[in-house]
Design goal:
The complex is a heterodimer.
Chain A: H1 7-22, H2 27-55, E1 59-63, E2 72-76, H3 78-105, H4 111-130, H5 134-153, H6 158-189, H7 194-207, H8 211-228, H9 238-244, H10 247-273, H11 275-280, H12 283-304, H13 308-329, H14 332-361, H15 369-372, H16 375-378, H17 380-394, H18 400-413, H19 419-444, H20 462-480, H21 482-496
Antiparallel strand pairs in A: 1-2
Helix pairs in contact in A: 1-2, 1-4, 2-3, 2-4, 3-4, 3-10, 3-14, 3-20, 3-21, 4-5, 4-10, 5-6, 5-10, 6-7, 6-8, 6-9, 7-10, 8-10, 9-10, 9-13, 10-14, 12-13, 12-19, 13-14, 13-19, 14-17, 14-18, 14-20, 14-21, 17-19, 17-20, 18-19, 18-20
Chain B: H1 7-11, H2 14-22, H3 45-62, H4 69-99, H5 113-126, H6 131-139, H7 141-162, H8 182-204, H9 213-236, H10 242-268, H11 289-313
The chains are: A mainly alpha, B mainly alpha.
Chain lengths: 497, 316
């Protein structure tokens, strides 16, 4: 085994260990540790990705002296390494972009606690990405849930506490259903290791044994993860959680935490249940319908919103709907489009959250549209970045959103029976997206008579501006250089099977 | 014939005080046990009525149920649907259970090679007589590593929520803590050492019999909480402050992380691990399981104590 195969294990343990170290460090040192750890893990994941692309074979890694199914095991393929790299990039940029706001909104004595939570969140995301064992996945889902609650609640004003309570209740419900699903699955197959479960599930389906518990188990796991990733009818916790938490948390929650759960669901679909067996159940139809409804209702709620942060949050509901629509198509191309949209949405949504904070800062801290008039002139960097994000969300060429819409449309025409619905809703949703995002862009570039708020210059926000620049670059890279990325996703999904 | 004492001499004897206590003439703890009473929260009638009216006014404004039939209908529909939905979910899960493989049959899918190897080779491979300890701390140690970090992150979250920020120290309500409760102190003097020694026993014998870090740590934590209740923060702070908590947690979790990293690394790369297994049954045996149990036990004990302290006064 090559030494590079240790890298997934190094990444997970490094981030776990850094969480522990941060607990005894002062805030400033904790910040440095946090940034260094994210960078190092990003580099490790990049190296791993290059290695896997050249080898072309996924590998499993024993966590201990015993082979799985007896011991624990993690597994790395192209998609896993790519996701880990992408998560690190987004997390670094989100932390850097929201750092100045953290000082305003969070008590100084609690900063190092914030970095502990971020490190542990990163480790749990990495473990969810690399795991090859259902119970390991559940343990790290727990860490993910608790630290996400902490990230919301660390800004201690009334609304965030309420949002955190809501998030906790809904998210724990999701974890509970996931655990039920895993328990039933274990009872039916006698295994927790993903590849062994898949083998047993294949046998059970072939024999026609235990069909009802099998379907219930799959449904429970799906519903649990849907609740945690805010698919349409379960999205009630989302707007407050994303809208009122401190901005780094909002960016991390919307672009990483919910995506981690979706990635776990993809893993379950491919590696636990089996893609074909999953597509023969009626569950994909349910996911399809909920996805379509989310695309419309999420956008409608966003149009009604008079608060820029909550508007962006509601837009997440619509975008998550896109991802589940891709699942619901039940084809390989639909899944590729969904995975691409995970990347595209994560890159764009964190950009929008970070840019929106710059706009509200130069509008007296107000998030109402009437106060945001002309904010794009007062903070030019944030204005440009917000416009780029909005264009990407609407689906203008050159930006990542265009490619994901294109991929969804291409996938839709290949599906019999679901083509018309997907294309129509895709069209309506694009128009709705354009309505609320363009409304905002026009608003921030409108000229006002009275200029009551002072603007910001590049000198006063160097790190912030550079972060935004990197975000825009990331979006453009995803949009322009899409073919290699799509190839990589296809290769990664093929490695899942 | 017994010797008759004078009444003065009699009054000094133990029997005299005992019978007086029995008959209820004197309470020996009167004035000794001091509970500083909490100041009674007093609100005058007027404010209460005003608050109630405000509450009603807000409710009327938000849910104008009197004039808005839609909202009333929605509320009742909401309740009915939620009840029906819960009943449906319960029924669904119960029906599913009835289709699951019957408990106790040999042919159940869970009776497979995984459990077989744990039972047959567990002792030889892990060196732990307690197979469960061997499973959670050797075969599946990665899960347990995650699990101990769940506890850690939970404490961090409670710290965020309850620790008082700078300038909020006046909200500290430790002045209301009960003091000098003689009965509790006497009982605690007997019980606390026993409880803590029992907890240590459970941890140290985790690989030899039922027990382990999680359960033993919980017992020690309970002992610490009892001690805190009996003697107050002033006494416990002599040996357990937030700093102690921080460093104990740090060292145990770091030890766990590093020790297990070594074992994962050697295992995955098929290297020879230098950690000896020892003779099964001896106290110093079964490789890393004993030190890991100690680390987990320390983390759990500190977590339980920290939760209690945080809820009591928002800090240590």
């Amino acid at each position: 085994m090559d030494f590079i195969c240790n890298f997934p294990f190094f990444s997970i343990l490094l981030s776990l260990f850094s969480g522990t170290i941060c607990s005894v460090l002062p805030a400033k040192a904790a910040k440095v540790v946090n940034r260094v750890v994210i960078t190092v893990i990003g580099l490790l994941s990049a190296a791993l990705l290059v290695y896997l692309l050249s080898v072309g074979e996924p590998f499993v890694y024993w966590m201990g002296h015993f082979p799985a199914p007896w011991g624990n095991e993690i597994r790395a393929g192209v998609l896993e390494a790519g996701m880990a790299l992408f998560f690190c990039v987004i997390m670094y940029l989100s932390m850097a972009g929201g750092a100045h706001k953290l000082y305003d909104e969070v008590d100084e004595s609690k900063h190092n606690l914030y970095y502990i939570l971020v490190n542990l969140l990163l480790s749990s995301l990495l473990a969810l990405v690399y795991t090859n064992d259902m119970f390991t996945a559940y343990v790290f889902v727990e860490i993910n849930t608790i630290s996400a609650c902490g990230l919301i609640m660390i800004r201690q004003v009334g609304r965030t506490i309420e949002a955190a309570v809501r998030y906790m209740i809904m998210s724990l419900l999701g974890s509970g259903l996931l655990l039920f699903g895993i328990c039933i699955m274990y009872d039916l197959t006698g295994h927790l290791l993903m590849s062994n479960i898949k083998e047993s599930v294949g046998l059970l389906v072939a024999n026609g044994a235990y069909q009802i518990p099998l379907i219930v188990s799959v449904a429970l796991m799906c519903v649990g993860l849907c609740i945690k990733s805010a698919l349409f009818p379960f999205h009630a916790w989302l707007p407050d959680a994303y809208g009122y938490s401190t901005v780094s948390s909002a960016a991390i929650l919307s672009s990483l935490v919910s995506k981690g759960y979706i990635f776990l669901l993809i893993k379950i679909i491919y590696r636990v249940i089996g893609f074909d067996i999953f597509n023969n159940t009626r569950i994909i139809d349910v996911l399809f319908v909920f996805g379509l409804m989310g695309m419309i209702f999420g956008s409608l709620s966003a149009i009604r919103e008079n608060d820029i942060r909550r508007m962006i949050a509601f837009s997440s509901v619509a975008q998550i709907g896109y991802i589940y629509m891709g699942f619901g198509m039940g084809t390989q191309t639909g899944m590729v489009a969904s995975v691409y949209h995970i990347l595209s949405h994560a890159a764009t949504k964190s950009l929008l959250f970070i840019a929106a904070i710059g706009l509200t800062e130069v509008s007296g801290g107000s998030r109402r549209f009437s106060d945001l008039t002309g904010a794009g002139y007062r903070n030019k960097w944030a204005g440009v970045a917000f416009t780029a994000g909005a264009l990407s969300m609407v689906g203008i060429p050159l930006f990542s959103g265009f490619i994901s819409k294109l991929l969804f449309a291409q996938a839709a025409v290949q599906v019999e029976g679901k083509m018309l619905a997907s294309l129509i809703v895709l069209g309506i949703s694009t128009v709705l997206n354009a309505i609320y995002f363009m409304k905002t862009v026009l608003r921030i570039y409108a000229t006002t008579e009275e200029n009551t708020y002072s603007g910001m210059t590049f000198k006063s926000m160097k790190i912030y501006a550079v972060t935004l620049l990197f975000f825009i670059l990331l979006n453009v890279i995803l949009g322009v250089n899409s073919q290699p990325i799509v190839d990589m996703i296809e290769k990664g999904l093929a490695m899942f099977a | 014939m017994s010797k008759k004492r004078s009444s003065e001499a009699y009054q000094k004897t133990f029997a005299f005080r005992f019978f007086r206590w029995i008959s209820g003439e004197k309470d020996p703890y009167l004035g000794e046990v001091e509970m500083r009473p909490q100041e009674e929260y007093h609100v005058d009638e007027e404010t209460l009525i005003r608050r109630e009216m405000e509450h009603d006014a807000i409710l009327d404004k938000v849910y104008d149920t009197k004039n808005n039939k839609g909202i009333r209908l929605f509320q009742s529909l909401y309740e009915i649907t939620s009840i029906l939905f819960c009943l449906f979910l319960i029924a669904l899960l119960l029906i599913t259970v009835s289709y699951l493989p019957a408990v106790g049959t040999v042919t159940r899918p869970v009776n497979n090679e995984v459990a077989q190897r744990y039972i047959e080779d567990g002792l030889e491979e892990t060196g732990a007589i307690n197979i469960v300890a061997g499973m959670i701390l050797d075969y599946r140690a990665f899960d347990t590593l995650g699990e101990s970090h769940v506890l850690f992150v939970a404490t961090i979250t409670v710290l965020i929520l309850l620790r008082l920020n700078k300038g909020q120290e006046d909200k500290n309500d430790r002045i209301f803590e009960p003091k000098n409760d003689v009965i509790l102190q006497l009982v605690a003097t007997f019980l606390v050492p026993i409880i803590i020694i029992f907890g240590i026993y459970i941890i140290l014998n985790g690989h030899l019999g039922p027990g382990g870090g999680f359960s033993g740590g919980a017992v020690i934590g309970a002992g610490l909480v009892l001690y805190l209740n009996a003697f107050g923060f002033a006494k416990t702070e002599r040996f357990f402050t937030e700093k102690t908590y921080k460093w104990v947690c740090f060292f145990s979790l770091s030890f766990y992380c590093l020790a297990k990293s070594y074992s994962f690394y050697t295992g995955a790369n098929h290297l020879h691990s230098v950690i000896p297994k020892g003779t099964p049954g001896a106290i110093l045996s079964s490789g890393l399981i004993l030190p890991l149990n100690i680390a987990v036990g320390l983390v759990v004990a500190c977590t339980i104590y920290a939760f209690y302290a945080m809820f009591r006064k928002g800090g240590f």
